[in-house]
Amino acid sequence: MAAVNGQLGALLRLYFVQGAWNYERMLGVGMGHAADPLLAELARTDPERHRAAVVRSAEFFNSHPYLAGVALGASVRAEYDGVSGDQITRLRRALCSPLGSLGDQVFWAGLVPAAVGATAAAVALTNAWWPVLLLLVVFNAVRAYTGVWALRTGLGNGMKVGAAINASSLGRLAAPAAVAAGFMVGMGGALAVGWLADPFGWRAVVGVAGVAAAGLAVNRLAGPRYAAPRFALVALVATFLFRWVTG
Predict the structure, then answer these.
(1) Last residue of a domain, which of 60, 75, 95?
(2) Which domain holds residue 147?
(3) 29 near 22, Cβ under 8 Å?
(4) Residues 73, 160: one domain?
(5) Is 197 left (phi over 0), alpha (psi -120 to 50) or beta?
(6) Among 12, 42, 216, 224, which residue's beta carbon has the most beta carbons within 10 A?
């Protein structure tokens, strides 16, 4: 399929898809921008279809940004396959909720807090900053791999992409990722407290109580869905700053 030629350009644009986020179309404008390299061949072979496809690709769309490539690839493949515009629009809308929910569970509530907790634990155990750099390298590698997988899954399956998502191992990662997140954030937090002060000293007791109180407050204010990653990131930054100021 000619659309494969524009994959690299689409992947680079998808990496920054949230930069075009707005209240009216959510990720829609960014999706339209990312679709442009993939639709280049269609502009030469069927200009009228290309104009309609460009408009459709920038319509309202909202899902997890890491998995947006699934919907982008599937809709572009459908354009080249000659599927009707109404069917493509319905496909995009149908993919919003499952891709959003799946991405939130695997990444925001799983891999992100797990990675932050592991980094906090590594910093506490090594008394060094290299785990932070390792976190950035590893997480961005996972992000890049996910983007490639998502786009190729969409391009390869088109209108049948729903079955491909169900058959993938991504959905099975949600439960173990959540368990890993809870364990690593707990371990990282405990080790960070021990790194800041003697585990049996009064500062450790105050630290544990403070972290517990902050976690409860964040959970009450933001809800459990987003509390874990946000709280973990804030706790990690606060730990580094406190260590730097006091040590």
Answers:
(1) 95
(2) 100-246
(3) yes
(4) no
(5) beta
(6) 42
